Amino acid sequence: MLLGPPGAGKGTQAAIAAKNLGLEHISSGNIFRENLDNQTELGRQAKEYIEKGQLVPDDLTIAMIEDRLDHPDCNNGVVLDGFPRTINQAQALEKMLERKGSRIECVSLIDVPSEILIERLSGRWICEKEGHVYHLTSNPPKISGVCDFDGSLLYQRSDDKRETVENRIRVYTDQTAPLIDYYRQAGLLHEIDGTRKIDQVSGQILKVVQECQQETGRIDLR
Question: Model's pTM, two decimal places?
């Protein structure tokens, strides 16, 4: 499991970890977007919360995650990205896994200061055609507002606008941070410096997972 505030790099790191561990990458954000794109009932209910930068209520989030974990590709284990976000969700997850004869093995917290997160997220723009990602500071387009690759216009997702980003971080701090203490008290939490380079962060995460697997007697790094 990967924990961390919006913009900490959970998605990137979860994909790297999943590939190295031979596990399925389960992203709550992707599940939300799939439900929104497919206009499912759960997606319609979640839409108003996502667009405001608020957490989707626990009952909706849990229902979406439980449905995804029931798919056969999750039978050998998963890397969870963006779920759980509250203690209530964590307890619901534990019950889901108990029914499957499984459990949480390792929790990595990617820690990044708020000021860095705001700069990372509020500067992100995406092209309309293929979804190429730019950043006004670290990776700007050659022509302002235009994609280098396909010439389509760039847009900013509603949840990447500065005021929404600041709200997302406040919501995380107020509602999600207590989960850190929950897993710390359970002896599962491992803190990762998320300000380092991508490969350095992924190296830290894989080292932590390997140590956890050694403790349980299961090693399966690919």
Answer: 0.79
